[in-house]
Amino acid sequence: MKDKNELAKGWVLKAESDLATARRMLASEGPFDTACFHCQQAIEKFLKAFLAFQGQQIPRTQPPAENHVMGQHGPDIRQNF
């Protein structure tokens, strides 16, 4: 099994790919709904990277990862940012 740093790095790379796709779509003037979808996907993947780095279990089903993170780590996230 991958260690938490490798797992987190993998999620970050996937998230950065989604952001790059969204930026290309915005630069070429659309489709904007698909660009928004890739932004949402990037956010979920960055949050999964955060969970992996913290050694937390990554949820595989809905609700979205951000609900899990904010429910368990909201105060920590606000304090650190």
Shape: elongated
Q: Assembly state here?
A: single chain
Count, helices: 3
End-to-end span in angstroms?
31 Å
Detailed description of the structure:
The structure is a single chain. With about 80 residues, the protein is mainly alpha-helical. It has one domain. It has helices at about 5-25, 30-55, 65-80. Helix 1 (about 5-25) runs antiparallel to helix 2. It is elongated and about 40 Å long.
Any chance you could write out the topology, listing elements then pairs?
Elements: H1 4-27, H2 32-53, H3 65-80
Short description:
By secondary structure, the protein is an all-alpha fold. It contains three helices and no strands.
Question: What are the main properties of this structure?
Answer:
elongated, 81 residues, mainly alpha, 3 helices
